[in-house]
UniProtKB/TrEMBL annotation, chains A, B:
Transmembrane segments: none annotated. It comes from the Bacteria. This is NUDIX domain-containing protein. Keywords: Hydrolase. One of its GO terms (molecular function) is hydrolase activity.
Amino acid sequence: MTTNDQGSNYTPGRYRTPDGAPSDIVIFTITSTEKKTAKKALPLRELQVLLIQRKSWPFEGQWALPGGFCKETEDMYACAKRELQEETGVTNVHMAYFNVYSQPGRDPRGWMISHAFFALVQEKWLAERRADTDAEDVRLFPVEEALQMALAFDHGVILRDALQKIREQMLTTVIAKEFLPEEFTISELYQVIQTVVPDFEERNFIRKITSTQSRKGLIEEVTDRGGQPKVSNRYSQRAAQLYRFTNLTQQLSLYS
Amino acid sequence: MTTNDQGSNYTPGRYRTPDGAPSDIVIFTITSTEKKTAKKALPLRELQVLLIQRKSWPFEGQWALPGGFCKETEDMYACAKRELQEETGVTNVHMAYFNVYSQPGRDPRGWMISHAFFALVQEKWLAERRADTDAEDVRLFPVEEALQMALAFDHGVILRDALQKIREQMLTTVIAKEFLPEEFTISELYQVIQTVVPDFEERNFIRKITSTQSRKGLIEEVTDRGGQPKVSNRYSQRAAQLYRFTNLTQQLSLYS
DNA sequence: CGAATAGTGTCTCTTAGACAATATGAA
DNA sequence: TTCATATTGTCTAAGAGACACTATTCG
């Protein structure tokens, strides 16, 4: 058996080792802008990604994903969380690891094996930061625009992969909740899904998600203390029922 | 902005760097053993995982996942593929990356950030190798048994995660095909799914997968050159229709 | 009342789910 | 003929999908 390096005699320092294990974080947010036409109207929503402009070699001046090197005393998740915190001041948001990028030569500084996370952040959490550093070297870009840009390193690929991943997860998990307030209307949920997955279309969305036995339990109506339905009219004249996600999960299957 | 290490002045050799980037591979296979009672009967199938016994420090004598260190000239996927090839002689099988393990202190040899893959291999591909090294330091273990063992490093956790991952993917993707011949019967498919996901039960499985409009296209009947249905009686007196997977995919969704 | 969003009625066709019943062919 | 697997019949209740229709309330 020639195979098991871990099982062979181990001589520290004998091998070439990586020059660093960075994490890169694809920070998504959905911005809402009101239509000017009417006051009460569904806002325009757009999926955006946070990029920073590099100040030094390599890729000086180019836009890149935020990130940084892992320390020996933390794991990759802690590293990404720390970088996210340092970059946006945001904590306690949904962040998930999705892939490793280890193509030889991907970083001119040396052998860097990068770990990519995506984070979903509500616009309001980014608000202060954006005010602080506006017109600085940190900016939100619409994803479609970012995809066209020549990003540093292989960050274009990472962004593309991340986008595919959250599109998939938007439909198969409840990450939609990360872009929504605790209590939301059916339209808001529908809009969020469509913002991330433009192809998504369900004509009878409200019925499928509320009145169907198999889906009952994914979300539930919110009531006030008196047990009366709680509604919102932030987007319409006619008040809309508010819902919240439950904690129930659901196993999807091709075969059932 | 204190955050972007990649954007700050870069001084090579200034930081502590990892001591290695290994890959670990969870190699799954499904073994079939015939029931002794009758010749033509559905075989007993069992999900097994390949482990190796370590010959040296650390964790000498303990069982571990196969794997090895990444070289500077290859990416992690190539590394895992090479290790799999060296370990089992197997090539061209389904292998997928699923997580990184970077807990500080997980490897007494130093700062090792490990990348975990799972591979799905048909028993027949392992047959030669097993004959070669039988009663040696490479063995298949039933997963339930392996989960009870004290594996080296954090390999117990990795195995648990891998198992959860393939259970999920067994139901949401067509990885079942990796455990099946090109042409298979409905019972075989059903058995494979149940072997990986013991809770899976569909009473009307055959109809759901063949006669349902929404699922039409996942598998298709095999016919011979004359257009006649191709059947197999390897498990039963009554011959069963053979099917194959098509290339059609299907987007699962909680919301539709 | 018109605009804009929220939500219901209704109809048809398909599917889910449960079981019973029948089919096949070697031992 | 029996046995083990393969496959179809049948019935009911529920869901999918399409689209027209009603509801609410601000301006």
